[in-house]
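User: Predict the structure for this protein chain, please.
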Amino acid sequence: MNTAETGESGERLAARYLKRNGYRILERNYRAHRHEIDVIAREKRTGTVVFAEVKTRTPGSYGRPADAVDADKRRFLRLAAESWLLHNGGPEQPARFDVIEVFLPEKRVNHLINAF
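Assistant: Here is the predicted structure, written as structure tokens:
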């Protein structure tokens, strides 16, 4: 499996995980200019919009997946989220940023809520 396939597999697993845990998927791979958000979901219980960055790791990968969400990546995610909110109901909506770590091949998911 190449890097793109690994990432897509992780995003599918993350979206499935979110659905099973009370979220409605609003968009996947949302692009605003050069920036992308892997999964945008709404938590059904609270109505909070969740901008989720999915990081997938396979055996032999270096470091914890969430460590790859550095300051630059967080800034890009914020910019894309601002764009999405402006076009989808306004910035006054409750929102947060989560990181979803996916570990392959065991398909283990670790959901970091309000990660930054």
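The radius of gyration is 14 Å.
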